[in-house]
Amino acid sequence: MTIQYTPKGVCSRAFEIEVEEGVIQSVQVAGGCSGNLQGLSALLKGMKVEEAIQRMEGIRCGVKDTSCPDQMAQALKTAL
What we know:
The chain contains 3 helices and 3 strands, in the order βββααα. It has helices at residues 34-44, 49-56, 68-77, and strands at 2-5, 12-20, 23-31. α2 packs antiparallel against α3. The longest helix has 11 residues, at 34-44. It is globular, with a radius of gyration of 11 Å.
């Protein structure tokens, strides 16, 4: 399954997440902080969707109510 997601309230413009049998296969991010998001993408590869959501949901960026990891969790919820 390929998840196409437009994050809200963050610098990133788009996420594309490939999930097979509940495991994240790849993550592509357009926009945002390149180094941080490349690191996040590398860490998520091979992780179960449920674990990724649990780890990232609710993370905030500064004074914002959300963050790229939190938005990634929202995107991954569509795979459940």
